[in-house]
Amino acid sequence: MILETTYNSNNYPIIVEHNALEQLHQFIQGYKDIVLVVDATVNNTWSSALAFLTSEYDAHKVIIPSGESTKSLTFYAETIEALLSRQLTRDTCLIAIGGGATGDFTGFLAATLLRGVDFIQVPTTILAHDSSVGGKVGINSQHGKNLIGAFYRPKAVIYDLNFLSTLPFSEVLSGYAEVYKHALLNNEAAVREIEQQYSDATELKALDEIEYYLYKGIETKLNIILQDEKESNVRKYLNLGHTFGHAVEYTFKIPHGHAVMIGIIYQFIVSNQVLNQDFDIEHYIQYLQDLNYPLDIISQFEFDALYALMLKDKKNNQQGVQMVLLDGIGNPIVKHVDKSILLQSFELLVAHFKK
Ligand SMILES: NC(=O)c1ccc[n+]([C@@H]2O[C@H](COP(=O)([O-])OP(=O)(O)OC[C@H]3O[C@@H](n4cnc5c(N)ncnc54)[C@H](O)[C@@H]3O)[C@@H](O)[C@H]2O)c1
Q1: With contact defined as beta carbons under 8 Å apart, do 324 and 243 qualify?
Q2: Which end of the chain, N or C, is more open, meaning fewer C-beta atoms within 10 Å of its C-beta?
Q3: Alpha-carbon dihedral sign for residues 84, 90, 94, 100
Q4: Which residues form a coiled coil (predicted)?
Q5: 8 A C-beta contact, residue 150 and residue 237
Q6: What is the mean pLDDT of residues 32-56?
Q7: Residue 295: which of 241, 248, 344 has the closest Cα?
């Protein structure tokens, strides 16, 4: 399946299929240098599948640490200095092969190397159906997640679904959070459909029909980012679950999507308070338990520390915390939420896990 952005210029294709990697060659013709930036675990697990890239395209390979530790200023400085020592020119293409951390990091390298060189996303996780599309790239700061970055479009997204076969279940769960988020942003039918398809951990492990749900997720994201690339209005909706989720992820160093799922539950509770919604919190908690999300960590949460991090969220304004809430499934809005409501909702959330 192929999707394509529809900006006025600088569009890019998103190829979502098994063996998509075979199509990479058409996007890397004519560059003086090609640099593969590869997640260490992916490099080990998929060494033979990736070997042809270095030999056939005479590409230079940089192996980066797996996961979030890559997205640091220190590692960024080290990597960009190492690349610059190779006398690269602007006629260079970086290829990010890994999950969202690899894509965010490599995209930021590409945006800043010689004031910008081309890059291609080769996502290898479920979560990266989200992160590889939309051109947000960046690294973390000691003040919070993704606070150093740019909007910088890739030349192509080559999503080879073969990679998903080696994902540990914990990463399947992490990625599923963003797929589920996209269904919540769509409509009730989409949520019913996905909850039926992946009704428990066994069903989710099987990943049947995942191609369809990834496609739907990317389509939802595209509809939003094509209206608002730089997040001045509707793109904020994609942050559903992220205000609280980022604070949890940053504090407890758990996978991004595990934290986002907790953020989504928290958002339901806040929406019930602020928007007089009637979301069935027990249903959503039970669903996450059926999928085997590790939710016990919630009993360790402390409001003050998480609130301090929520205050650093990029969506905030002079009023304070701005959250994406659901005024009904498929109807997101961005709203200021007072500290007292945040605290009350927090206590309701934690109470479920201290029973
Ligand atoms: N730019 C955006 O729009 C955007 C959107 C959502 C999330 N993100 C970012 O994405 C990151 C999370 O992405 P992620 O969940 O893909 O995390 P990740 O890149 O850290 O990968 C998760 C783990 O899976 C391993 N892995 C990757 N592919 C594998 C494979 N095929 N087989 C086995 N193991 C594999 C990695 O080594 C890592 O340990 C966060 O940094 C988050 O901030 C960015």
Answers
A1: yes
A2: C
A3: positive
A4: none
A5: no
A6: 93
A7: 248
Q: Is 106 annotated as a binding residue?
A: no
| Average pLDDT rounded to a whole number, residues 56-75 | 94
Instruction: Give the mean pLDDT of 48-75.
Output: 92
| Confidence label for 169 from pLDDT (cuts 50, 70 and 90) | very high
67: annotated binding-site residue? Answer: yes
Tens of pLDDT, residue by residue over 92-128, are: 999 999 999 999 999 999 999 999 999 999 999 999 9
Ligand 1 proximity of 271 Cβ (cutoff 6 Å): no
Q: Which two tokens stand for residue 103?
A: 């894509």
Query: What is the b/e burial string over 236-263, where b = at least 16 CB atoms within 10 angstroms of the residue's CB?
Result: bbbbbbbbbbbbbbbbeebbbbbbbbbb
| Predicted confidence band of residue 355 (pLDDT cuts 50, 70, 90) | low
Residue to mutate (ligand 1; options 21, 63, 66, 243; most atoms within 8 A of CB)? 66
All residues at 6 or more sequence positions from 78 whose CB lies less than 8 Å from its CB, including other chains: none
Is residue 178 part of the annotated active site? The answer reads yes
Measured torsion, CA atoms of residues 327, 176, 66, 136, in degrees rounded to the nearest 10: -40
Q: How far is the CA of 182 from the centre of ligand 1 (A)?
A: 17
Task: Give residue 13's pLDDT band: very low, low, confident or very high (50, 70, 90).
Answer: very high
Told to judge if 192 belongs to the known catalytic residues of this protein, a careful annotator would answer: no
Q: Which of 39, 76, 162 should be mutated for ligand 1, with most atoms under 8 A from CB?
A: 39
Task: Confirm whether residue 17 is marked as ligand binding.
Answer: no
Q: Is 352 a catalytic residue?
A: no
pTM here?
0.94
Distance of CA 214 to the CA centre of its chain: 13
